[in-house]
Design goal:
single chain; mainly beta; seven-stranded antiparallel beta sheet; 11 strands; globular
């Protein structure tokens, strides 16, 4: 198993383990990050975190402020895939793995939309 990005006929293997998806809100410019882990059941959202609140991006009850981010552990079932949209009107997604972060455009062309994050066999 490994994590993959898929867009049309393109498939990019990202390796094993966890990935952090990050993006900035188009109005607030607030950073939002989600940590996803591959499991035999699918993708599990391990943690969500946000720098601040506003414009509909408020942390939920129970979130804790740690190192400048409101952090919480969403109680969601494993998902078969996560669909990521790229409008071109905002900065691209940021993907972080093993401590290194890169824009999605380092993996797929900027016009590739939608992009699906999934567990590949």
């Amino acid at each position: 198993m490994s994590l993959c990005l898929a867009a049309g006929a393109l498939l990019v293997s990202l390796g094993h383990g966890e990935i952090t998806l990050g993006w900035r809100h188009s109005v607030q410019k607030t950073l939002w990050e989600e940590v996803w882990r591959e499991t035999p059941a699918g993708l599990v959202l391990v943690e969500a975190r946000i720098e601040g609140s506003g414009a509909g991006m408020d942390p939920p009850d129970g979130a804790r402020l740690i190192d400048g981010f409101w952090r919480w552990h969403p109680a969601l079932p494993a998902l078969p895939e996560v669909v990521l949209r790229r409008s071109g009107a905002t900065a691209d997604w940021r993907l972080c793995m093993d401590g290194a972060c890169k824009p999605m455009s380092d993996y797929l062309p900027a016009e590739a939309d939608p992009v699906t994050l999934k567990v590949c066999g």
